[in-house]
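Hi P.,

Sorry for the delay on this. The queue was packed all week, but I finally got your sequence through. Input first:
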Amino acid sequence: MYKNLKRAGLAAFVLAVSAIHPVAHAAPLQACFVYVSPVGQAGWSFQHDQGRQAMEKALGEQVKTRFVEAVAEGADSERVMRDLASQGCGLIFATSFGYLEPALRVAADFPGVKFEHAGGYKTAANLTTYNARYYEARWLAGYLAGRSSKSGVAGYVAGFPVPEVVQGINAFTLGMRAANPKAEVKLVWLNTWFDPAREREAALALINQGADVLTNHSGSPAVPQTAEEKGVSVVSYQSDMSKFAPKAQLASVTHHWGGYYTQVAQAVIAGRWAPKPVWGSMKEGFVQLSALNPALPAALKADLEAKRAQIVNGTFKPFSGLLVDNSGQTRLAQGALGDAQIAGMDWLVQGVMGALPSAR
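Then the structure:
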């Protein structure tokens, strides 16, 4: 079912990346990737690199790829992207939120190079943004946590308070409280995307506060590994982390970039690329709740599948109904939040035990 949805959805995205452009790009296209953390064996950069490899396999001699890993946001990323553009890269994927402003500066100096930025909110003539509706699968993850937790307390290890992360926290909490209206989600901010030692410390702190299910928005396997070590459950993020937490992992919210990256490269090669932002969903195969633990009860798996189907067919939206924030203010009385409201989300729902630090 997932494969069929991905084929159908990705076909629709041809239109999103294929507006007519007067000049085609000579093959082989050099497609270059910049990663904020080491590729490693799992996590954010690993999933983007899996997408790079899938694109390379699909397009063969039409494309050559390169990547630079562990590139800090800010001046380092600008230097790396500038080097790649000057060395013949015709397409550059900037795969971290903090790469946006550096990418915009480099794009202005290299108008012939196409830039794709993950998670950004600004575009240019030769730079567009792409993202996934991670919050859809996060709602399912929270529902699974709520059905599985005995304490009614989950722990959430979060990177930075950007809207994408806030959406995930809120969706997870709403899903958990749909299963258990009294559930709480305790929150620890890292103020980094990748720091295994700090991720582990945060996970331990949350376990000490009563969390018997963990989840995270950070870049290493440290949170699943800590859950496995301490005998609590985890809903992993970005990659299937079952090899790090074979007993602890209930499921994982996984990212899938290969189909999108392939179509972007095809559009550049054919001269059809246009700076049109993309926000992909579970329906299009960008994100899914996968790697469910075989030990989960069959009835629970069926319940999750039914709710997944409702999100995919649009009969249920994670940010709908009465939404109250964790200060008691009503944010939505009925209906559903629109994309602009979700994209700019800067508040936490009722049930989150924590606060937003100052934005980056």
